[in-house]
Each structure stands twice: as C-alpha cells, then as structure tokens.
Amino acid sequence: RDCKLKLPRTEYAIYQWSKGDEARCHSCADKMSRTVLSSMNTLVGNISSDSTDRNVDLHGDDSNDECGGRPDGILVCAHSKECCDICMVDYTLMNDFTRKRTELGRDVLTQEETDCVIKKSMKDNNVRINKKICIMDGLPVCPRSSKKLRCPCNEVTYCSTACQKQHWMIHKMTCKWHAKKEVEKAKKKREKKEQQRQQHAKKKSAVDNLTEEQKNFARMEAFYAENNGGKHSIEECAWQLGEHPLAIGGGTIRIGPSGEEFTRGDVAKIYRERMGVEWDGSSRFGMGPYKQKKSPENWIAKARQGKSQRMKDIESELRAFV
Questions:
Q1: How far separated are the first and last CA of the chain, in Å rounded?
Q2: Pairwise CA distance, residues 135 & 155, whole Å
Q3: CA dihedral of residues 114, 120, 122, 125 (deg, nearest 10)
Q4: Which residue among 177, 246, 253, 309 is least crowded, i.e. fewest CB within 10 A of its CB?
C-alpha cells in the first residue's frame, strides 16, 4: 500500500475490506493496475517483436484470461493471483478446499470438513458485513438502488440482479453453509421459546394449585427475608407467584388471634397516588423483564410447607404473653 491515510469504507473495494492495514484504496489500486498493465504491454511488445514470423494469439480466450489453473489445482487469475483487484476475483476459499483435499489425499470432503474450512476462512478474514448495504457497493457494477434484496442465507444484501450475479462466484461457496447456520439458529430459538413456554405453564399450574393462605406464607417469608438483608427476595417471590412485587412490598403484616396475617398491597392505588399513573394489571408494570439477581429459592415449595419454624416461634411467644 502506497498511502497511509485512513479513509471511509466507500474508498475501498469489497475485496480489500478484510485486509486491515494492508488494504488498498481505489487510488492505490488504480496506480497498481496501471503499473501491472504497463508491464504486461511491455511483455506483449517483446513477444510481438520476437514472433513476427509466427502466428501468435496475444489475447487468447476470454475465459483463460479470467481464470487459470496451476498443476497443483490452485486457481489463479491472469496475473497469477488468488485474490486480484484488477480481475475482481477471489479464489481463496476454493483454493482452501483444494489444499484440504490434497492434504487428506482424496477428492471429496465430508460435510464436517467442509464446514471446518469455511469457518476457518471466515475467522481469518474477520469480515463484518453491513446487512443494510449492498455487498457490491462502491464498485462500478453497483447501481446503488434503494431496493435491497436479502439472500436467503441472511449473510449478504444486494441492490440489483447484476450485483448478485457478479458476487455469486464468491458467495456460492459459503451460501449453503450460512443458510444451514440460519436454520440451526432458528431451530434453537424455537426450542428455547418452547422450553420457556413449558416452564411458564408448569409454574402457572403450580401457583394455581396453591391456596391464598399458602401464598400468604410465602409472601410473609419473602417480606421478612427482604427486611433482614435478603435483597431481591420480594421480587423473586412475586415473579414465581405471578404477581407484582408491590403486592408484597406494599403489603402489611399484623398479629391477629390466629397468628400473623398478611394483607396484600393495593398496587393500583400505590401507582395512582405515588406515581400518578394507572396500573395496567401486569406483573412487571413499570419494570423490565425479570432477571435472576440472587441464588434461587423455591417460594412455591415454601408456600406448600405452611408456617415456618420462625412463624411458629413468634406465635408461641405471643401466646405466652397472653
């Protein structure tokens, strides 16, 4: 690279994005192109002067100018490069497959070996593709249309059919691999969502089987735990019981003839009087999604156990005073 300037992405060809500090801007690439073409013209001139008595085809077939193969099976362009900015080709990944087959000594790679080669290529390139910009943006072939076409593999975006056809030689090697990744990602997302739904249904079923008296046992335990330094106990208990934390935190405990009695807080009244808003009835109103912030406790199991030993001790002390 001749210049050391830090330029915006649009000043580089797509094939230069993954080269870091070695990337050539359009100006440096044009300068290199002129140098290469000048050397090629000199070479052609020498050949022409030495072969005037022979019929020499200086141009040859167009397909041979674009792509050539070495004896070891490695693909190169007309300038003997695997990745060439002048020819606008990149045979790096295809040659990686060829090297892998040569290394293993067989003509066909397994799916696992293919995925391994592609993954290593993606990691080495360290390319970050903007999904909102055409992958061919900045090249002469790109019309920069406002219409964006997303490849089914969800890896690249095009703005025209011409861009897709031009880039297909490179993208076809990884398209199926990325499409497979997207399918697996969607499958894991569905499985996670289904697991969460089942856990929620199981928790709701367990809560529905509790009596109000059993729920009050859990509420009082969480209330006392919070006031004795057990942070986030009320929030965790309320989440497991499917109610708003203010129903416990805004409640009261009084000592009655039958022992301790819990009265739930009026969540709608608290929001209306203290915050000037109306409660919509949801269990996380005014709060974000629940996140576990402490070592988990099973408050539903505590509710089924009934009165704890602490509550029984307090009641026995009260009876002694009476």
A1: 93
A2: 10
A3: -140
A4: 309
